Amino acid sequence: RCAVLLRELTQPYLLRRSKKEVQEILQLPAKSEQVLFCNLSVAQYQVYVDFLTGHRMGELMQSRARAFFVLSVLRKICNHPDLLLLDEPEDGRPEDFGNPARS
Q1: CB hemisphere CA count around 81 (13 angstroms)
Q2: A Gene Ontology biological process annotation (predicted)?
């Protein structure tokens, strides 16, 4: 009963459209995807393999939350190993910030 009352009170302020109505109005082209594969650099590959063969991998894969953490780490390795911040200097500043050879 409360849900019906709430819906009646908010209905004049909410505009609900279906996906089909929006597509007709906007006339967008069909979605297209391109999947591109690229190889890991030697450093990325080494960090990737080291992480997968690490002694804590079995422990990390025992729960869903940890599995998502593992996937997140692997994604960071593939984007750039420095995203893991494993070897950050004590002063908090990256050693080679702005080095084009590393980016």
Answers
A1: 15
A2: transcription-coupled nucleotide-excision repair
Which DSSP letter does residue 92 get?
Answer: S
Beta-carbon-side half-sphere exposure of residue 18 (alpha carbons within 13 Å): 3
**Residue 11: inside a domain:** no
pLDDT in tens, 31-67: 899 999 999 999 999 999 998 888 788 788 777 778 8
Q: How far is the C-alpha of 15 from the C-alpha of 2, rounded, in Å?
A: 21
Q: Provide the number of structural domains found in the chain.
A: 1
Query: pLDDT tens across 75-91, in order?
Result: 999 998 888 865 555 55
Please give the residue range of the domain that contains residue 54. Answer: 42-85+93-102
Query: Which sign does the torsion angle of CA 63, 66, 72, 74 carry?
Result: negative
pTM, to two decimals:
0.52
Q: Answer for the pair 76, 84: CB distance below 8 angstroms, yes or no.
A: yes
